[in-house]
């Protein structure tokens, strides 16, 4: 999985990420800034899910978006 693509297109990806996970704020997205681990952490925090579940959702999102 190439997260450099997500980082490179972060402005475009932010909109899709907000559609997928509406509880993430604009401030959250600024902190995440295309970093997979940061996104997983924020999903855990906002949605109260496990790290494994958050990683699974992020990977599924990436696979769908790629």
Work out the helicity level: over 70%
CATH topology name = Protein Yjbj, Chain: A
CATH superfamily, by name, is: YjbJ
Our Rg estimate from Cα atoms comes to 11 Å
User: What is the H/E order?
Assistant: HHHHH
Mean pLDDT, nearest integer? 90
CATH class: Mainly Alpha
- Span from first to last CA? 9 Å
- In total, the number of strands is 0
Structural domain count: 1
Q: How would a textbook summarize the main sheet?
A: none
Q: Provide the structure class.
A: mainly alpha
Number of helices: 5
CATH architecture annotation name: Orthogonal Bundle
Binned strand content: under 5%
Give unreliable regions as ranges. none
Q: What would you call the shape? A: globular
Q: Could you explain the architecture of this structure?
A:
It is a single chain. With 66 residues, the chain is mainly alpha-helical. The chain has a single domain, classed as Orthogonal Bundle (Protein Yjbj, Chain: A). The protein contains 5 helices and no strands. The longest helix is centred in the last third of the chain and has 15 residues. The model has no long low-confidence stretch (mean pLDDT 90).
Task: Give a short synopsis of this structure.
The chain has 66 residues and is an all-alpha fold.
Set out the fold topology.
Blueprint: H1 3-8, H2 10-20, H3 26-32, H4 36-47, H5 51-65
Helix pairs in contact: 3-4, 4-5
Brief descriptors of the model:
single chain; 66 residues; Protein Yjbj, Chain: A; 77% helix; 0% strand
């Amino acid at each position: 999985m190439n997260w450099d693509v997500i980082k490179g297109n972060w402005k475009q990806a932010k909109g899709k990420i907000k559609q997928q996970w509406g509880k993430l704020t604009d401030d959250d997205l600024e902190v995440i800034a295309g970093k997979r681990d940061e996104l997983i952490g924020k999903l855990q925090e906002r949605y109260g899910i496990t790290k494994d579940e958050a990683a699974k959702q992020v990977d599924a999102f990436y696979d769908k978006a790629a």
